[in-house]
């Protein structure tokens, strides 16, 4: 990823200037509230011990407890977590959720961990940050390299440390431990929802649209499959191993997602058809399609790659896939971008429902989760469109502005202590 903290600051600065927002909120949100860095000794299966770095960052808590994922990735750093936590602050405020932004992680390649090593690392990390997380302090969730299994280990470890079951300490847990059905697919669903809404806003029936998805993981695959079900033609998808392209359309159900089988996009039966071309991930970004969904990793659309984009509508499934320079070039070219803080906000929104479920001990069924998610994402989208039209600005600036107004109001109401 490029520099996410610099990207967040740039977005905040532009929104403050464009929407005439109180500049004190800009100064307040340029830096996180707290950065915790811990050393994590990990005993490997062969008895050797590695010492890894772990982080937990809370960006802002004006609206409520910190909320943000726990990622395992070699590139995890304090600065990366700070930037991602800043985006979470904006995302929660935009969706009008009672959370602030947070993020954490461990600098490790999850592919190098056995199941036993992974569990020991999760429990060690939880013990190291237990004093700064909790249902009313900071609530982790799955992210890159982690899923429901890891969240179950976090909840169990934290419960042992505090002496009682505390399901609200994390979200994204298995349903058997208080998780909600639909959490894993929620970010992809919100990407599909805003893609459909954006096409409708532009007067383009979804059934006429061709779509390319970079990153066929839990976000990209779920978005692609929903859009295909709703009538769009998904012509290209990719994972870390490369991309496949069929201008007549791909059967998204026949292509395993990364969760179902890692690196299977170019090595599955659907990829062997005569009409399917094999491309690089960079080539996918430049395909002649109507909608491009970058749902892999951050920083893939810089000033150079943004120049090659031929889609006129981009929907950001990943966190920070567009650098500030790339965003500027896309705006200069007149291309529309639905920002990540709105597009992939389904995850944190459903996490809020799970957090409520854990607090109230009353389960939400899948139908209620999806109905409420669709309504909340649609309401946020409408507020962004209205703001963009009022101030004649991009959807990204409008989304940031909606969030900043709510944060400014919260900070003003709280005052300062001491």
Automatic annotation (TrEMBL):
Keyword Oxidoreductase included in the entry's annotation: yes
MF term (GO), any: oxidoreductase activity
PROSITE patterns: GLFV_DEHYDROGENASE (PS00074)
Domain of life: Archaea
UniProt cross-references to InterPro entries, sorted A to Z: Aminoacid_DH-like_N_sf (IPR046346), Glu/Leu/Phe/Val/Trp_DH (IPR006095), Glu/Leu/Phe/Val/Trp_DH_C (IPR006096), Glu/Leu/Phe/Val/Trp_DH_dimer (IPR006097), Glu/Leu/Phe/Val_DH_AS (IPR033524), Glu_DH (IPR014362), NAD(P)-bd_dom_sf (IPR036291), NAD_bind_Glu_DH (IPR033922)
Entry annotated with the keyword Signal: no
Annotated positions for site Important for catalysis: 143
Active site (catalytic residues): 103
Keywords: Oxidoreductase
Residue ranges occupied by any Glutamate/phenylalanine/leucine/valine/L-tryptophan dehydrogenase C-terminal domain in the UniProt entry: 185-415
Signal peptide: none
Subunit: Homohexamer.
UniProt family annotation: Belongs to the Glu/Leu/Phe/Val dehydrogenases family.
Full protein name: Glutamate dehydrogenase
Species of the source: Salinirubrum litoreum
Phylogenetic lineage: Archaea, Methanobacteriati, Methanobacteriota, Stenosarchaea group, Halobacteria
